[in-house]
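Hi V.,

Quick status before I head out on leave. The structure for the redesign project is tokenized and pasted below; the design run finished overnight.
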């Protein structure tokens, strides 16, 4: 009996040690959404450049306000600038990351699928977090960063992270039924 108790205790201690050594979860579960689905759900779709990033501490968390200089509005009312709200950021030397949410850098050129923020007038949030934010390089490559997201299918099962993450500007425009010229207005000037 003592041997069984000792064996049970040792096995329990080993299992506990293994569990406490495991890596913490590092992904947000999110249902897959096609670009066409994002296009249909968004109230605004804009191509623009990040001209300002402001962080704040609100209601116990760090948030970032992103100001875009809009180059082109594809859906929604046309505007020269728009302000986006996104969880996470760096405030007073403290960083907070919101896994699966869109992240922005100053001077980055982006195409975003937006919906109005319910609690603030004239502010928007990116639809479906990082799924709704795409970076557009100066040479016309459109990319999406889905790190920090585990994609699930409609049945709720985990889906391999094979959601498309890069396009040429022409491919992207065809997929969204937008003309490539409208996606790259700087070339027309």
């Amino acid at each position: 009996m003592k041997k069984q108790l000792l064996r049970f205790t040792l096995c329990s201690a080993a299992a506990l040690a293994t569990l406490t050594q495991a890596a913490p979860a590092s992904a947000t579960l999110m249902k897959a959404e096609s670009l066409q689905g994002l296009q249909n759900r968004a109230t605004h779709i804009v191509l623009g450049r990040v001209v300002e990033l402001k962080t704040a501490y609100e209601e116990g968390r760090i948030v970032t306000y992103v100001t875009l200089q809009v180059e082109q509005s594809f859906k929604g009312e046309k505007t020269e600038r728009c302000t986006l709200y996104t969880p996470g950021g760096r405030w007073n030397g403290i960083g907070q990351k919101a896994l699966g949410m869109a992240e922005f850098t100053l001077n980055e050129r982006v195409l975003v699928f937006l919906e109005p923020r319910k609690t603030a007038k004239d502010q928007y949030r990116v639809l479906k977090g990082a799924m709704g934010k795409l970076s557009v390089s100066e040479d016309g490559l459109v990319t999406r960063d889905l790190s920090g997201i585990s994609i699930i299918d409609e049945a709720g099962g985990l889906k391999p992270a094979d959601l498309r993450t890069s396009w040429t500007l022409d491919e992207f425009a065809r997929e969204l039924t937008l003309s490539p010229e409208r996606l790259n207005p700087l070339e027309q000037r």
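Above is the designed sequence. Confidence is low (pLDDT under 50) at residues 4-24, 184-189.

G. will cover questions while I'm gone.

Best,
W.
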